Amino acid sequence: MQQSSNKGHFINKYFEKNYLRYMAASLLEKPIEYLKGVGPNRGTLLRNELGIDTCKDLLYHFPNRYVDRTRFYNIAELPKVQADVQLIGKITDIRLINQAKGKRLVANFQDTTGEIELIWFRGYQWIQKQLQLNINYIAFGKLTWYGSRCSIAHPELEEKTEDSTKKSSIFQPVYPSTERSSAITGIGAIVSGKISPFLLS
Fold this sequence. Notes:
Layout: H1 2-28, H2 39-50, H3 55-59, E1 65-68, E2 84-98, E3 103-111, E4 114-120, H4 124-130, E5 136-146, E6 149-153, E7 156-159, H5 162-168, E8 171-174, H6 187-200
Parallel strand pairs: 4-6
Antiparallel strand pairs: 1-8, 2-3, 2-5, 3-4, 5-6, 5-7
C-alpha cells in the first residue's frame, strides 16, 4: 500500500511539473498587451518602438545598465556632482514659469534637512494635475548643480508607501529605449513582478 501511495505521489508531481512548464511556455508566447500592467496603449508602443511582441520578447529585453536605488539621501548630504539620487520628502510649492520657449513646471521638494527643485519641461500640464502638496513622495533622478543650488529634471516620482519603499530599495535596471518609448516606465517591475515569480514558482 505504501509503495502504491508513493507511486501516486510521484505521478502527481510529474504532471504538476509538466503543467507548470506548459503554463510558463503559454505565458511566454502571450501577446504583450495581455500582461497585467501593460495594456493596449503601452503594448502598441512596446511593439512599434522596441519590437516587443510577446512576454518572451520582454523577458529577453535586457537592461544596458543598473542604477543603485538602495540608498536614500538627505538633501543636505547630496553629492556635489551629477549623480543619480533618491530622496524622500514632500512637495511644498508648485508653480508654472514662463521661459523663452514654452514653460517649465517647478516644484519645491523638502525633507527635514533642506530643499531641492524638481523640474519638468515636457508633459507639465498632466504632471501638475497629479502632484499633491505635503504628502510623502519618493523622488529619483539625476542631480544637476547650478552654483550652490541643485535640481532634478523629470524625476521619477511615486507616493511613499511601504510597498513603494521596498520596490525602490533595489538595483533598478535601465533599459535601452527610443525617444518615444522613454515615456514607458516600469518595464523592470513588470518583468520581476509578473513574469519571473511565475517562472520560478
